[in-house]
Amino acid sequence: MVLMIYLEEIEKKALEDNVPIMQKEGLEFLINTINEHQGKHVLEIGSAVGYSAAMIALNTKAKVETIEIDQERYDEACANISALDLKDRVVIHHHDALDFPLEELEMGDFDCLFIDAAKAQYQKFFEKYMAVVAPGGICVVDNLDFHGMVFAIDEIKNRNTRQLVKKIKRFKDWILNHEQYDVEYHHIGDGICVIRRK
Ligand SMILES: C[S@@+](CC[C@H](N)C(=O)[O-])C[C@H]1O[C@@H](n2cnc3c(N)ncnc32)[C@H](O)[C@@H]1O
Fold first, then answer.
1. Which residues line ligand 1 (CB under 6 A)?
2. Could you tell me the domains of the chain?
3. I need a surface site. Which of 18, 81, 86, 164 has the fewest CB within 10 A?
4. Integer Cα distance of 77 and 125 in angstroms
5. Closest ligand 1 atom to the C-alpha of 143?
């Protein structure tokens, strides 16, 4: 009960501070997917304030290693994980995931890679971190519909948003047509895919 209240507080504060955290439907899907795969080690790119990492640790048997670029969010994530008594289940790194040295990862042999950071960089994160995903492991990527905008790029007025959505669409098309990967696409939350090596 106390845990639930604390988690609700994290959610509420994130909303107030404009920190984007995973939508309920998508998070539920991610947790079910990790449980189906009996995942033991999850690598998350983009911790924000540690909400999804905490939810994974509390609702699966997996340990989570997560990377966050922003100092303030990293500090808040560390405080939240400590307060939830999850320090032995969640490791947080403060770093740009694009130049984080892979040898500094503590867990290795990840069953699941979850990409939830800068959307324009999805392909770079994917190419870098699939190298530490065990054979048979999966990658889950969120926000692939970007509020439905991916289906109506020409109607986006703001130039920066249009560029970002184009990059998301480019990743989506690239991975859906990749000969080395099978992709399941789900219209859940903001569009989620589960990627497996063939
Ligand atoms: C959507 S939020 C993550 C939400 C979190 N997974 C949750 O659901 O609770 C994305 C986070 O990725 C972080 N981020 C963006 N680019 C990054 C990078 N290159 N390396 C690490 N973190 C990054 C942002 O600072 C932001 O906090």
1. 20-22, 46-48, 51-52, 67-70, 73, 96-98, 116-118
2. 2-197 (3.40.50.150)
3. 18
4. 21
5. 1
Tell me the CA–centroid distance for residue 119 and ligand 1, in Å.
9
Measured distance CA(120)–CA(169) in Å, rounded: 10
The rounded average pLDDT for each run of 10 residues, N- to C-terminus, in the chain (198 residues) is 89 96 94 95 98 98 98 98 97 98 94 94 97 96 83 87 90 94 91 93
Q: Decide: helix, strand or coil at residue 70.
A: coil
Q: Is the pTM of this model over 0.90?
A: yes
Residue found by looking up tokens 């560390």 in the block: 78
Residue from 95, 116, 142 to probe ligand 1 pocket by mutation (most atoms less than 8 Å from CB): 116
